[in-house]
């Protein structure tokens, strides 16, 4: 995994997310994957951006999400590009659901646990404050505990 400076070629946001950092920088993240080692390397590479750093990525899918996530460092913008998606948020133990169609968006507030369910083939654009992002399995009944990706402070 490496951040690329001054990329001028076409990139696919499905496989190569872009990190938005301090100074209005935009750097493609080559070799990105959801592997824990790559996530730790990404966290370390962008740690200087702190809570201001954002990842921009497109997700394609179909069906229910398999995990809850929370972004304590900042809000997350979720935009439905095609298909339909239901975003469910845990608002102090109460489920808050928002259904999005093409061109519609919602904001997941900082620190709020949420899950995304795609209805049929769907494409989403997410702009996420990644610092300290945490995940827990969808089957986990716990509301406040987590089992997730280490933040840069927890990395090697």
Could you characterize the architecture of this molecule?
This protein has 156 residues and is mainly beta. 7% of the residues lie in helices and 47% in strands. It has 1 helix and 10 strands. Strands 1, 2, 3, 4, 6, 7, 8 and 9 form an 8-stranded antiparallel beta sheet that branches. The longest helix is centred in the first third of the chain and has 11 residues, at 36-46.
Q: What's this entry about, in short?
A:
With 156 residues, the protein is mainly beta. It contains one helix and ten strands.
Which features would summarize this protein structure in a list?
156 residues, mainly beta, eight-stranded antiparallel sheet, 1 helix
Q: Work out the strand percent.
A: over 45%
What is the arithmetic mean of pLDDT?
88
- Helix fraction bin: under 10%
Indicate the structural class: mainly beta
What is the subunit arrangement here?
single chain
Termini gap: 15 Å
Uncertain residue ranges: 142-156
Number of H- or I-type helical stretches: 1
According to DSSP, the number of beta strands is 10
Biggest beta sheet attributes: 8 strands, antiparallel
- For the CA atoms, what is the radius of gyration? 15 Å
The coarse overall form would be: globular
